[in-house]
Design a protein that fits this description.
The chain is α+β, with helices and mostly antiparallel strands and 181 residues long. Helices cover 23% and strands 37% of the residues. The chain has a single domain, classed as tt1808, chain A (Alpha-Beta Complex). The strands form 3 sheets. Strands 3-6-8-9-10-11 form a 6-stranded mixed beta sheet. Strands 2-1-5-4-7 form a 5-stranded mixed beta sheet, covered by helices on one side. The longest helix is centred in the first third of the chain and has 15 residues. It starts with a helix and ends in a 7-residue tail after the last strand.
């Protein structure tokens, strides 16, 4: 990415209203309004299940930018797990390849960002697992095994069906507790 573009994007992020989430993919800036109560509830329910199985030495976060300058990507997943050492900084940005997973609760106002943009970006950024909870479709999808810029494996489930979350978490996600929009 052109360093001048990166500086402009960072300035835009600093001056944006606080009720918006800002990300970028290449030279594209993605702005989204803050999420609804159902979005936050579903995220909390998923996070609680992950916390019971999180590997030692890793912490959850929902407000950390995952950066991959070599592929000109910076994303901020709804939930990710990072090594504790990565969280000992005053920065709000860490290398994306440190993330164990990216979890997104699909925004009803901009589903393409999660289903297209992030599905394209996360494997390029080296994120090994991508979990998508789509409350509009009442589905949960797990992507894994990034290779050559895409995820090789995909598991789909309807709300109420089990989703097998692989190691380093190693558990079955209960989707029956999720609410649709």
């Amino acid at each position: 990415m052109n360093p001048e573009h990166l500086a402009l994007i960072e300035e835009f992020r600093r001056s944006a209203p606080s009720n918006f989430k800002i990300e970028f993919s290449g030279d594209t800036v993605i702005m989204q309004a803050l999420p609804s109560a159902i979005h936050e509830r579903n995220l909390a329910v998923v996070r609680r299940q992950f916390e019971a199985h999180a590997p030692a030495g890793h912490l959850p976060t929902g407000n950390m930018d995952l950066a991959s300058p070599e592929v000109a990507k910076q994303r901020n997943p709804d939930l990710t797990y990072l090594p504790e050492e990565a969280m000992e900084s005053t920065e709000n940005k860490v290398p994306a390849e440190l993330a164990l997973i990216a979890v997104e609760i699909v925004s009803p106002s901009n589903p393409e960002n999660d289903w297209v943009g992030k599905l394209r970006d996360y494997p390029l950024m080296g994120i090994p697992l991508y979990l998508l909870v789509d409350a509009t479709k009442k589905t949960v999808t797990l992507f894994r095994e990034p290779e050559a810029g895409r995820y090789r494996m995909r598991e789909d489930a309807d709300f109420g069906e089990a989703v097998h979350i692989p190691e380093p978490f190693g558990f079955v996600l209960d989707t029956s507790v999720l609410l649709p929009y």
